[in-house]
Amino acid sequence: MTDNQASGADGVKTAVLRKVHTRPGFIYAAAHRRTLAWVNMIIRIASISDKPRIAKLFKEMIEYHCQKDPIFTLKSSGHEYYAIWFIEQIENDSALPLVAESDGMIVGFSLSFLRKYPGTWLSENYGEINDIAVAREYRRKGTGTKLVNKSIDWFKSKGIKRTEVKIATTNELSSKFWRKIGMTSYLETMYLDISVHD
């Protein structure tokens, strides 16, 4: 197997294990590149020039969700409309559109909002992490955690004491990520397909 034949997390791991006996420096070099990518990563406010990459990352995220539930299926230009809307939030004082950048490339993004509970509740305000997406090759490397931590810092600066996120129950990876962050469930959205219901 050559370096170019490895694909996905398991593929990369297998390639490393097979190379260890013939190229001792391979593992160190690969690990060093991954470490540098993480160290060089910056989390910043999104800019207009980030729009194409945001559209691509959003499309990848939704395509994964669609494998679990077709309700997430986008219109043909849905990802482009999303990116336009995302960039518009730069001017929204109640929003925080962030991107994760590594070596000049956008490898992730998140979008958070300041929200209000119903007027009948004793609690008034909360922070919502509306969306988060990370490029496949940068997952499980701390990218998502960096985006979340930056959002939480922003919430705290606004006097927010509670943050929430909505997740797809079919997305086990997402659920594990948020629980690792420290999130716990308190609501569940249920649905009924009345087109086939008697």
Give me the secondary-structure topology.
Elements: H1 8-19, H2 24-39, E1 42-45, H3 51-68, H4 78-88, E2 95-102, E3 105-116, E4 125-134, H5 143-157, E5 163-164, H6 172-181
Parallel strand pairs: 4-5
Antiparallel strand pairs: 1-2, 2-3, 3-4
Helix pairs in contact: 3-4
Characterize the structure shown.
- 18% of the residues are buried.
- Residues 1-36 have low confidence and may be disordered.
- This protein has two domains: 1-39, no CATH class; 41-181, 3-Layer(aba) Sandwich (Aminopeptidase), CATH 3.40.630.30.
- The protein contains six helices and five strands, in the order ααβααβββαβα.
- Helices cover 41% and strands 18% of the residues.
- The longest helix has 18 residues, at 51-68.
- Helix 3 crosses helix 4 (78-88).
- It starts with 7 loop residues before the first helix and ends in a 17-residue tail after the last helix.
- Strand 3 (105-116) and strand 4 form a beta hairpin.
- A five-stranded mixed sheet has the order 1-2-3-4-5.
